[in-house]
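Justification of resources, computational component.

The compute hours requested in this renewal are based largely on the per-chain cost of generating structure records like the one below. Each record pairs the submitted sequence with a full structure-token output. That output is archived, and it is also reused by downstream analysis tasks.
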Amino acid sequence: MLRILTVVSMMIGAVYASDTALEEFVSTFDDLYRSSSSRGRMRMEITTPHWEREMEMLSWTHGQEKMLIKVISPRRERNMGTLKVGTELWNYMPRTERITKIPPSMMMSDWMGSDFTNDDLTGAYTLKDDYEVSLVQEDSEYRYFSAVPQKDRAIIWGELRIQVRREDNLPVKQEFYDEHGELVRIMNFKNIQTFGDRTIPATLELVPQDEENRKTVLHYLDLEFDVTLSQDRFSTAALREPVREE
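The structure output for this chain reads:
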């Protein structure tokens, strides 16, 4: 009887550990780059079989609802920008002085010629609220999770598979699968750095799987969380303004 109780106790303990690991992972992953507000500087490197391109940008966010990104280099693209309010996006082209609202039909189009899409920028979904997440494997260094969209969510991915470090739940790799189970792209998280009191992967490498020698790498050069920002920052008027480096 004592042996049976010991086995049952071990099983309950294993289930509790798995549930705890799952909750900690979801909380860490959802809030990794999120805060009440932020201000940052980024460099994006786009590599294709035919050309390479590099941009430097400034970004401001307010929660998950608002975001402004402005290009500061190269010079010919300076002041190009994107504004997000809720799930809506607008782009600004300084050469034509025109603001264009992105229609739903173009949400899966590339953003600024990169492998990120307009839909990626909206960040409308979280693991906690919109996915069914499960722990599928773990070893001494990593845990591996599967996230499947809830049935009533309009999410294009059939499944996300995410590898994280056991010690701190920081992501190492995220795989994106379509509804047919085909691997579409891979996000590699690299270059762990601390900005203020937050430690995050400062480099995100997005690699599409349908074309060789193509990738987009996003480097966070500087990042401040929970800063004071005027709500006027997130307006079409601010989108038109020439960028001022802070």
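DSSP finds four helices and 13 strands in the chain. The CA atoms of residues 92 and 99 lie 4 Å apart.
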